[in-house]
């Protein structure tokens, strides 16, 4: 599939799989001096990596380079890579409510389509002011324009987290980085309060975001 495809099949250099998934390695800087190497899977992948290293690295003893990507579970296996960062609000209301336990899923939308609903992170406690980042894969949606975010409250960790009122979480923004399109977009909900189980549309933030 990597030989004859319109998909980029892009892989990123990183020290480990864990760091790659955590979004620590998400830049393609092959054209910069000592920059991070990216490569398209296929017949020319090895040649392109070696050429980039020889041209742009001061030390050329990098005979082995670790590259990571994420493929689909079935055909077509090629996927585009997105780095999703969810910023929990640190507003007064968020701190007064305190954090919640649960999990997120997101559908990324763009000029050329949309992804399926993608599960983010593991079930965990979301503290006011905390930031959560992960690399995910989906079809190429073109330039990212919006997203659908859903948070679902869970209580499997601690019975003390049970609430008699409906569970809510305060989300400041979601940042989506598209590796294929070298794009960064900050998306905001209309209201930072997100109700458990209720999908919320995110649009490009109207003001400059300071994370």
UniProtKB/TrEMBL annotation:
<dbReference type="GO" id="GO:0005615">
    <property type="term" value="C:extracellular space"/>
</dbReference>
<dbReference type="InterPro" id="IPR029058">
    <property type="entry name" value="AB_hydrolase_fold"/>
</dbReference>
<dbReference type="GO" id="GO:0016298">
    <property type="term" value="F:lipase activity"/>
</dbReference>
<protein>
    <submittedName>
        <fullName>Uncharacterized protein</fullName>
    </submittedName>
</protein>
<dbReference type="InterPro" id="IPR036392">
    <property type="entry name" value="PLAT/LH2_dom_sf"/>
</dbReference>
<dbReference type="GO" id="GO:0016042">
    <property type="term" value="P:lipid catabolic process"/>
</dbReference>
<dbReference type="InterPro" id="IPR000734">
    <property type="entry name" value="TAG_lipase"/>
</dbReference>
